Amino acid sequence: MYEYLKGIITAITPGYLVLDVSGIGYKLYCPTPYTYDVNQEAKLFVEQIIRDTEHSLYGFASAEDKALFLKLLSVSGIGPKSALAIMAAENTTSLANAIENGETAYLTKFPGVGRKTASQIVLDLKGKLGDYAVGQQSIFDQAAVSPDLNDALLALVALGYTQKEVDKITPKLLENNFDHAEDYIKLGLNLLLKKVTK
Q1: What confidence tens digit (pLDDT) does each residue in 84-95 have?
Q2: Domains of the chain with CATH codes
Q3: What is the pLDDT of residues 156-192, one digit of tens each?
Q4: Which DSSP symbol is given to 143?
Q5: Residue 85's closest CA among 46, 132, 29, 17?
Q6: What are phi and psi of 156, to 5 degrees?
C-alpha cells in the first residue's frame, strides 16, 4: 500500500518513531530509531504488516533495507520483531556475509534466533543476498552494461536467481542491443530456465 513516507520526525522511542506527514503522525517501527533526530525531515521506506493481532507500519532508511527486511520475513520462524532485531544488531554487509558463508553459529547470537532458525535462514537466503555481501557483486564492468540491461539483471536477481547464475548468462545478454529492459528480462529468463532444465 505504501512505498515511502516523507515528513518530520516528532518523537523517538527505543522501538519506533513518529513521522508527521501533513499533520498525520505515523508510528513506524524501525531497526535503529535513534539514528534520527526529533524535528529532522526524513524519508522512510515503509512496509505495512496486517495480521490477526497486528496492524503496523515498519520504516527503513533505504529501499535496500526494506528489501532485506522482507527477505528475512520470508524465512520460517522469523517475524517482524525478530527481523528488526537482527537488522538493528548488525550491519547488512556482515549479516549477508554470515548467511552466504553458512555461519549458523554467528546467526544464533541474534535475539530469538536458535540453531534451527539460523539453519533455516541460511537455507532460505543463501545466494539471494549478493547485493549486500562483500565480494558477491557482479563480475562484469558496469560501464559495459547499458541501463536497460542493468535494470534487467537487477530484476532477475529480485526474482530469486543468484548473482552467480545471472553472471553466467550475462555474456549472452550482452550480445543483444534491446531498447527495453523487458526484452532482456524475457531472454534472461529463457536462458536461466534452459540451464535449470538441463
Answers
A1: 888 887 677 778
A2: 4-60 (2.40.50.140), 63-125 (1.10.150.20), 142-197 (1.10.8)
A3: 877 777 777 888 898 899 899 898 888 999 999 989 8
A4: G
A5: 29
A6: -65, -40
Amino acid at 47: E
53 phi, psi to nearest 5 deg? -115, 15
SS in 3 state form for 13-38?
CCCEEEEEECCEEEEEECCCHHHCCC
Confirm whether pTM is higher than 0.70: no
Q: Whole-angstrom Cα distance, residue 89 to residue 110?
A: 7
Per-residue cell: 99: 548467511
Task: Give 46's strand partners.
Answer: 59
List phi, psi (to 5°) of 126.
-60, 130
